């Protein structure tokens, strides 16, 4: 039963969703890993799988040292399969429809509270005149304000910044372009960096089209930006498992916490599927209740 339903799902991804062979192969590989784990524990079909089994699987994978991105990707695959089987009438209900729980968010990435973000950003004071400190502050401000992927930030061209309309034009996965709003504070820091610091960094490479440069005038790479993030966390005294994607996750979480629509967040993050956005947004139940009371007419 596992294999029959899995093959139906893969056929759906190819024929109806039009996904590439690489993408469908990745989904198949992740789901076959999950199938094997279930089989070893006596499960015989998908209808026997509940939320606790999925959480136990993710927990086991984390204990094996799986990367956060791998865990998140596997959960996306399981959620998509469950939704498909429910829509096809093979499952009576989608057990992954509500997966937000304290246990799940201990497995998936840490995110920063708003107070932690403030401390994190202040690790590189905006008032300092040391050029690399100012550049690093601009990097962190843009990451948190826009939710960009690190690869997108590293290759962000000067032409992508629209100061008048407070927007960034970002080329993301699959060479797809999206328009992302950016906050006034981040723009103010970025404008100062571009005026006072970038010209110094660009002296050795004046034709570089990129916003953020190294001291040699070259574009920054992912590892260098990761190091900036780690230094900021250490200075701020934050002991969570911080990495550049933490700011992207915090960006989405805080938008949701303040009432933003999940579809809007999906667009800003550049997610092709809403289920991916559900993975990278988190809100505690008390905050959710407070937003309901504030915004719902009968709250």
TrEMBL record:
Catalytic site positions: 149, 173, 245, 248, 271, 280
Family matches, as InterPro entries: CB, DNA_brk_join_enz, Integrase-like_cat_sf, Integrase_catalytic, Integrase_recombinase_N, Integrase_SAM-like_N, Recomb_XerD, Tyrosine_recombinase_XerC/XerD
GO CC terms of this entry: cytoplasm
An example Gene Ontology molecular-function term: DNA binding
Location in the cell: Cytoplasm
PANTHER family recorded: PHAGE INTEGRASE-RELATED, TYROSINE RECOMBINASE XERC
Subunit structure: Forms a cyclic heterotetrameric complex composed of two molecules of XerC and two molecules of XerD.
NCBIfam families: PRK00283.1, recomb_XerD
Protein name as annotated: Tyrosine recombinase XerC
Organism: Victivallis vadensis
Gene: xerD
């Amino acid at each position: 039963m596992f294999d029959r339903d899995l093959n139906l799902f893969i056929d759906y991804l190819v024929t109806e969703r039009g996904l590439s062979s690489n993408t469908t192969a990745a989904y198949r590989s992740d789901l076959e890993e999950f199938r094997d784990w279930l089989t070893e524990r006596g499960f015989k079909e998908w209808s026997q799988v509940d939320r606790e089994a999925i959480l136990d699987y993710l927990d086991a994978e984390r204990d094996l040292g799986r990367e956060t991105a791998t865990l998140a990707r596997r959960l996306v695959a399981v959620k998509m399969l469950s939704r498909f089987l429910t829509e096809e009438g093979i499952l009576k209900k989608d057990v992954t429809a509500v997966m937000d729980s304290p246990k799940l968010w201990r497995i998936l990435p840490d995110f920063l509270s708003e107070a932690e973000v403030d401390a994190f950003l202040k690790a590189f004071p905006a008032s300092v005149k040391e050029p690399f400190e100012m550049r690093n502050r601009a990097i962190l401000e843009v990451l948190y304000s826009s939710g960009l992927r690190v690869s997108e930030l590293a290759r962000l061209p000067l032409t992508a910044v629209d100061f008048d309309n407070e927007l960034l034009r970002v080329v993301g996965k699959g060479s797809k372009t999206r328009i992302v709003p950016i906050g006034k504070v981040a723009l103010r820091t970025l404008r100062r960096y571009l005026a006072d610091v970038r010209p110094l960094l660009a002296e050795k490479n004046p034709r570089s089209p990129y916003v953020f440069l190294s001291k040699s005038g070259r574009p920054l790479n992912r590892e260098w930006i990761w190091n900036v993030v780690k230094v900021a966390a250490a200075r701020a005294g934050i002991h969570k498992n911080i990495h550049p994607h933490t700011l992207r996750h915090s960006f989405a979480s805080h938008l949701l916490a303040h009432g933003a629509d999940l579809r809007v967040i999906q667009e800003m993050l550049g997610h092709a599927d809403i289920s991916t956005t559900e993975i990278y947004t988190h809100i505690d139940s008390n905050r959710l209740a407070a937003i309901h009371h504030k915004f719902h007419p009968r709250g």
